[in-house]
Amino acid sequence: MSPVLVSLDAGVLQVTLNRPEKLNSFNPEMHKLLRQALERAADEAAVRAVLLTGAGRAFCAGQDLSERDVSPGAAPIDLSVSLGSYYNPLVRRVRELPKPVVCAVNGVAAGAGANLALACDLVLAARSASFVQAFAKIGLVPDTGGTWFLPRLVGAARAAGLALLGEKLAAEDAERWGLIWKAVDDGRLMDEAASLARRLAEGPTRGYGLIKKALRISSGNSLDAQLDLERDLQREAGLSEDYREGVTAFKEKRAPRFKGK
Ligand code: LHQ
């Protein structure tokens, strides 16, 4: 079986991490196939939203720790190589993808797996799922954007607790803390996530891409700079076919039929 399953239906590219026997932890092959799927999502006009999830009982347990030789006498490992080649480009790809990415966290999300989920635009989690900043437990620093996402999503105090203690945070607490969009009953997770992704796939794709851009850039901007950015992005949004359709549908009191253009 391929370590990443990909299928396209009704504008939604579903991408499933598929190494369930290893809790969908990352090895180079899974990285490669996930990147390919995200490049396809970026390039193909027929893809208008992405739904990311995991097979089996976990979402993703981060790096596959069984692949590293840390025995006494083994050569020291330079982990920056792995971040530079795999994890950092992955986070950038998700954040800069001009289409919405829904993450359905079906089980435990640990280490880089937790932070991959946080990089997505809308995160739904099964009530039995949990988020673990496992890094400190093995002497590492949260990576895959964790030290950037956590303080912004939950504030400095909770970010420090999560990063230093590496304890499991249950999905409902993650929702209450503002770490994720929503916790849902286990049996409803995939239906709810798929219907959210389908709804986004029927939306104004160009506008969504511009919203993602505005939110992404806002964290480094002054209000002044952000106002200028909103002016420029709104110009672009206002030139889209979907803007015309949105206003026309509003005036005609009917549902809009967006084409993503
Ligand atoms: C695993 C893993 C795993 C292999 C569970 N690998 N087998 C980036 C750059 C370069 C290098 C370093 O890292 C990074 C980014 C990172 O992601 S660092 C953080 C790596 N991840 C972790 O430290 C998480 C380690 N796993 C856990 O803490 C727990 O397994 C979690 C909380 C994920 C799940 O706990 P449980 O539900 O209690 O399951 P378990 O611990 O019993 O695990 C089940 C099996 O899965 C077990 O194997 P076994 O043969 O005994 O059944 C684990 O060894 C295996 N597994 N995570 N990352």
Can you put this structure into words, describing what you see?
The protein is of the alpha/beta class and 261 residues long. It has two domains: 4-201, 2-enoyl-CoA Hydratase, Chain A, domain 1; 205-251. It contains ten helices and ten strands. It has helices spanning 28-43, 79-96, 112-119, 146-154, 156-165, 171-177, 189-201, 205-218, 223-238, 241-251, and strands spanning 4-9, 12-17, 49-54, 58-60, 101-105, 108-110, 122-126, 130-132, 168-170, 182-184. The strands form two sheets. Strands 1-2-3-5-7-10 form a six-stranded mixed β-sheet, sandwiched between helices. Strands 4-6-8-9 form a four-stranded mixed β-sheet. Helix 1 (28-43) runs parallel beside helix 2 (79-96), helix 4 (146-154) packs across helix 5 (156-165) and helix 8 (205-218) runs antiparallel to helix 9 (223-238). The longest helix is centred in the middle third of the chain and has 18 residues, at 79-96. The structure holds ligand LHQ.
